[in-house]
Design brief:
The protein has about 240 residues and is mainly α. The protein is built from ten helices and no strands.
Length: about 240
């Protein structure tokens, strides 16, 4: 199917754009000569988009070879898209709060691509991309596993090196443990809401034709035709 093949190439193009943005963001960050620049891979955005790029390559190849995505790919896309979309929402919130507090934040074009452009495009591709069946609700709890483990490790690592990728994980930048726990709980709830929304969208609008649309009605066998004729009453009895 031509549309499916075009969609496969768009997945590969999306992976290429993501990789270019990641490389630029890494070079830009390391050029800042700050502790944040040397901790490039500590950011959840960077980790999740690295996985996103790899998954987009795999998904693109599958779209070029098959008319439908396998079930495991749909589940994997829910996982990764939930992470990248939530990271974009969190980044937008951080930039907005920084502006409210008068704290300048420089946003290079690569950050804009990773946090805003790619998440917006993936939502469009998720809704309208051909070959996607309905996702399973069972994937939603697993969406929370990665950010939960990442958060625990990041808080521990931050206490050792004295640096945190996001301010709300640092007790020195919040009012106390209560605000930090509340912020983390809010972040996890956003992950869950995004995952639920993706699964719901996939079920409301699956992009794989139903069985009746892709499979013709089976023709009756010779034996079944004979049985049907035997059950019919004679013409004179009608």
């Amino acid at each position: 199917m031509l549309t499916r093949r075009m969609f496969g190439w768009s997945r590969l193009l999306t992976a290429a754009v993501c990789i270019v943005a990641l490389v630029h963001r890494m070079l830009w960050g390391m050029g800042s000569q700050t502790l944040a620049g040397t901790n490039f891979f500590a950011y959840l955005t960077i980790q999740s988009n690295t996985v996103f790029a790899a998954l987009a390559v795999v998904a693109g190849v599958i779209a070029l070879r098959r008319d439908e995505d396998p079930a495991w790919l749909t589940s994997a896309r829910v996982l990764v898209l939930s992470w990248t979309i939530t990271a974009g929402l969190a980044f937008a919130l951080i930039v907005w709060q920084a502006g409210e507090r008068g704290i300048p934040i420089t946003v290079p074009w690569s950050d804009a691509v990773l946090h805003f452009v790619l998440p917006a495009w993936t939502v469009v591709a998720w809704v309208f991309g051909p070959g996607r069946r309905a996702a399973s609700w069972r994937v939603v709890p697993f969406v929370l596993l990665y950010p939960l483990l990442w958060g625990v490790f990041t808080i521990w690592r931050g206490s050792v090196i004295g640096w945190y990728p996001y301010y709300f994980l640092d007790l020195r930048q919040v009012s106390g443990i209560g605000e930090m726990v509340l912020s983390c709980a809010l972040a996890l709830s956003i992950f869950a809401v995004v995952a639920v929304a993706l699964v719901l969208l996939s079920r409301v609008r699956p992009t794989v034709p139903s069985w009746g649309e892709i499979s013709p009605r089976p023709r009756p066998t010779v034996r079944r035709r004979r049985e049907t004729r035997a059950r019919r009453p004679p013409r004179h009895a009608r």
